[in-house]
């Protein structure tokens, strides 16, 4: 899929205020600082479409973008960042969970995981919850430029093994680096295929 246009729509505090759910939507979620906003910029080939930061907790609202005048892309706040006040963390989690559970046009949720780390409990619990709710999702491993390919393989295998303890099959997995533009065509063609078969 070629990206012809990518426009920022607005930021919302609840899924209820998001644009009418009349076209396909895809959202990016994951721990704070995992690289959601950077990945969105890489996919859209725009440096500053989504705001990125070295300080975790940059994205605090539901940020919607209108792509190719045909579908929405959503940048969600990060979950589970320990340094954010507990009450704020709770609000973020509710915002994310309500959005994921009730947004009618959400075709697929992309769950981002830092490829450098071992499987983390809150990511595993979040994906288990997605399974219970029947929400379609993919896994995206980020920041692969920061590790060697042997480390990456080891970490991926670890993750797959951990997932298969609770799942019969693995979801679609993408391996990315926003820094080196890895994984772009795979993710965009995945979205393109779903868009083609989406009925509204
Ligand atoms: P929150 O909005 O706070 O939840 O964070 P986020 O998940 O949107 O992360 P963001 O895209 O802001 O990136 C966090 C930091 O990681 C920034 O300093 C990015 O430059 C860096 N980063 C993101 N992706 C990559 C990558 O693929 N490679 C490298 N080397 N750094 C990355
Ligand atoms: Mg962000």
List keywords for this structure.
single chain, 200 residues, alpha/beta, 5 helices, binds guanosine-5'-triphosphate, binds magnesium ion
Overall description:
The chain has helices spanning 36-44, 86-102, 121-133, 149-163, 184-197; strands spanning 6-12, 25-30, 62-67, 71-75, 106-114, 137-142, 173-175. With 200 residues, it is an alpha/beta fold. The protein has a single domain, classed as P-loop containing nucleotide triphosphate hydrolases (Rossmann fold). The chain has a seven-stranded mixed β-sheet with strand order 1-3-4-2-5-6-7, with helices on both faces. Strand 3 (62-67) and strand 4 form a beta hairpin. The longest helix is centred in the middle third of the chain and has 17 residues, at 86-102. The chain is globular and about 40 Å long. The relative contact order is 0.18. The model has no long low-confidence stretch (mean pLDDT 93). Bound molecules: guanosine-5'-triphosphate and magnesium ion. The site of guanosine-5'-triphosphate has 23 residues, from helix 1.
CATH second-level architecture: 3-Layer(aba) Sandwich
The share of residues in helices is: 25-40%
CATH topology: Rossmann fold
Strand fraction: 15-25%
Give the N-to-C terminal Cα separation.
20 Å
How many E-type strands?
7
Low-confidence stretches: none
With strands numbered from the N-terminus, the spatial order across the biggest sheet is 1-3-4-2-5-6-7
Largest sheet, if any? Answer: 7 strands, mixed
**CATH uppermost class:** Alpha Beta
On the 0 to 100 scale, the average pLDDT is 93
- Each distinct ligand: guanosine-5'-triphosphate, magnesium ion
Protein structure class: alpha/beta
The radius of gyration computed from the alpha-carbon positions, rounded to a whole number of angstroms, is 16 Å
């Amino acid at each position: 899929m070629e990206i012809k246009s990518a426009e920022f729509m607005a930021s919302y505090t609840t899924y209820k205020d998001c644009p009418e759910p009349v076209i396909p939507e895809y959202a990016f979620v994951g721990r704070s600082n995992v690289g959601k906003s950077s990945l969105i910029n890489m996919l859209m080939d725009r440096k500053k479409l989504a705001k990125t930061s070295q300080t975790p907790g940059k994205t605090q609202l539901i940020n919607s973008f209108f792509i190719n005048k045909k579908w929405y892309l959503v940048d969600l706040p990060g979950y589970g960042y320990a340094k954010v006040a507990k009450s704020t963390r709770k609000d973020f989690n509710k915002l994310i969970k309500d959005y994921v559970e009730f947004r009618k046009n959400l075709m697929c949720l992309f769950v981002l995981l830092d490829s450098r780390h071992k499987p983390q409990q809150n990511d595993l619990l979040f994906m288990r919850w997605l399974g219970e709710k029947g929400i379609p999702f993919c896994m995206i491993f980020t920041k692969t430029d920061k590790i060697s390919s042997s480390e990456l393989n080891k970490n991926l295998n670890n993750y797959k093994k951990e997932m298969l303890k609770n799942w019969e099959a693995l979801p679609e997995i993408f391996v990315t680096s926003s820094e080196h533009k890895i994984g772009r065509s795979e993710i965009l063609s995945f979205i393109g295929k779903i868009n083609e078969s989406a009925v509204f």
